[in-house]
Amino acid sequence: RRPSPQSPRVPTMPRNAWIFAQNYDVPFGRGRRYGGDVNRFVGLALGGWTLSGITTYYSGFGFSPTLEDYPGKPNAGPNNRPNIGSGDPFAGAQGNRNQWFVGGVGSTFLLPSANTFGNYPINVLFGPRFIQQDLSLGKTFQLTERFSFQLKADAQNAFNHTNLGSPNSDVQSPNAGQITGIAGGGVMRRLQLSGTIRF
């Protein structure tokens, strides 16, 4: 996973992204495969529900290691990039929010010579992957020919999977590789109940 000095510049995008949409009519109640002979009240309560969802998966976003300062640091330009060393930034790392990669100046990240820019490739290190399942359960109650009531329950990140954000990329920081937030677009489990009357 260690990049080479000749690695091409890559965009800050995941290598893989998958989005799946699901829609399922629960086959229970009058006119359905199961429970077709239940009484009206049971059918009204348990039949006619629709379950839908969206599954989102992507591999981690790219990020670049950075420097705070070094002797002879240029006053302008891309002056916060280290030189690439021979080590693997992920070797020996905990691989979690406490230490996604190993920082420090030494074998993996090197200080550029005075008045020069670092040669570390841009966005070739990748952060944590993202997995989120959103679910929605709904049913429409036809009260009269004119009036209907829709009951809906929505769950964002239904399984409460923690999607970590990008790590601290400052290799000179004592907290290098530490992740203190969640990924953009990610939420912890969020529930919403709603009702809609149509007439």
Polypeptide structure, described:
- The protein has 199 residues and is mainly beta.
- Helix content is 4%, strand content 29%.
- It has one helix spanning 40-46; strands spanning 17-25, 50-58, 62-63, 83-84, 109-110, 125-126, 130-142, 148-156, 190-198.
- The strands form 3 sheets. Strands 1-2-7-8-9 form a 5-stranded antiparallel β-sheet, with no helix packed on it. Strands 3-6 form a two-stranded antiparallel sheet. Strands 4-5 form a two-stranded antiparallel sheet.
- A hairpin with a 5-residue loop joins strand 7 and strand 8.
- Mean pLDDT is 87; it is low at 4-11.
Short descriptors:
single chain; 199 residues
Q: How many helices?
A: 1
Q: What would you call the quaternary organization?
A: single chain
Rg over CA atoms:
26 Å
Strand order of the largest sheet: 1-2-7-8-9
Q: What is the H/E string?
A: EHEEEEEEEE
List the helices and strands and how they pair.
Blueprint: E1 17-25, H1 40-46, E2 50-58, E3 62-63, E4 83-84, E5 109-110, E6 125-126, E7 130-142, E8 148-156, E9 190-198
What's this, in brief?
This protein has 199 residues and is mostly beta strands. 4% of the residues lie in helices and 29% in strands.
